[in-house]
Design a protein that fits this description.
This protein is of the alpha/beta class. The protein has four helices and five strands; from the N terminus they run ααββαβαββ.
């Protein structure tokens, strides 16, 4: 029961954590990420749950200068985020050099090639609890962290023959 309450709170609170940003500014950034992120070829047949909790640091002009990963995604996913370096957020966003954190999950079930031992399915509560664990640690470490309230979901499907 407590786990269900925790998961519900996660989805209720996340939109308020990014309260200082307008929805159009957040939407613009999420569209930028989804438009420029490309799943590396070597991962297109991977059946494992792939996701990244990305933490970017900005300078005093709202430009991204550093990318860190809160979880430990495969190196191929890490390099796929290199396009973020140099991205400049709108001056309307009051970032003030605070880190910005967002989640990107990769839905790849249609194109995966299952191998023995692959764990393909996670209960939604387990996934939410794992993500919330990372997020709550970030809040504890730096209460000024800005969270993008939208969960970014990148879907990959096999090209049609």
């Amino acid at each position: 029961m407590l786990k269900k309450v925790f998961v519900i709170l996660l989805f209720v609170i996340l939109p308020f954590i990014g309260k200082s940003q307008t929805s159009s500014e957040i939407k613009s950034f999420t569209q930028f990420v989804l438009r420029n992120f490309h799943l590396p070829n070597e991962l297109k047949t991977n059946c494992e749950w792939m996701y990244a909790i990305v933490k970017v640091k900005t300078d005093n002009k709202n430009k991204i200068i550093k990318i860190e990963f809160v979880n430990n995604p495969p190196n191929e996913i890490k390099t796929a985020f290199d396009f973020l370096i140099g991205h400049q957020f709108s001056k309307k966003m009051k970032i003030d050099k605070h880190p910005i954190v967002f989640y990107l999950g990769i839905d790849n079930l249609e194109g995966c090639t299952e191998k023995p031992g692959d764990k393909m399915f996670y209960a939604p509560n387990d996934a939410a609890a794992k993500i919330w664990g990372y997020m709550s640690q970030l809040i504890k470490d730096d209460p000024g962290t800005i969270f993008m309230p939208n969960l970014l979901l990148y879907g990959y499907s096999k090209p049609q023959p």
